[in-house]
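Friendly challenge for the regulars: who can give me the structure tokens for this chain first? No prize, just bragging rights.
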Amino acid sequence: MQITFLQLLLLGILAGSANVLGGLFLSLSGIATKYKSFLKYLLALGAGFMLAVIFVELLPKTFILWKGESEEALLIPMILFLGGYLLTQFFEHTIAPHIHLGEEVHHCEEHIVSTKAAYTAIGGLLIHTFFDGVSISAASQVEFKAGLLVFIAIFLHKFPEGFTIASLILATGKGLKQVLVATTLVGFTTFIGVLVGESLVFSVKYALPLASGVTLYVAASDLIPEVNHHGGKKPIISLSVFAGVALFFSLHYLLHTALEN
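First reply, four minutes later:
Bragging rights claimed.
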């Protein structure tokens, strides 16, 4: 079953909207203090889910697409997989700095983050979220189920991502209006990534391993270190990673059953 263009657009809109919702979650009075700890578990859940998607769904699909090729040719998807990982490392830590969940959360009146630093960091996230959209699109072109699972994985970390953006903006002393502008821009970039990924001129057999490498970076180098950092002496946060893996297998089974009926 192949995903339709309208369904793909809907996934892109929903993924981008999660950034805005995360920003509102922090910005609305009283919510951030009361529910902030919940985001740590959501982050861990998303990391586990995303890792399972990569190794159980995306990489096997990549090998199927390259089935019948020579042993030398099989180096190509592996190089693309590595390239996607390194490309994300390059953009996030060379072109613009990466920001982390809750790292810049301070009282707004302190103004401890400069506006220039905030906008530079958000610029780095724009690149990151663009590739989120490309990953959704690339997986969806292979199979509806694969695209939906990648969407869920990305959606789970986009809410904390919106929270992070809002925390950074509020730390510069700005308010709700600026938070909405920033989170909407980052969310819209995800949507653009979906559109660009859908119209890629090269074959999906090349796009999928590249997108898989990007997704692996987000899960293993962005999310897992955050989980370890915030987990501290609370193993339940780290155990939430395993819950994310379990969630993947549950949804994988349900989707497989539903799509066969």
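The radius of gyration is 18 Å. DSSP finds eight helices and no strands in the chain. Your move, everyone else.
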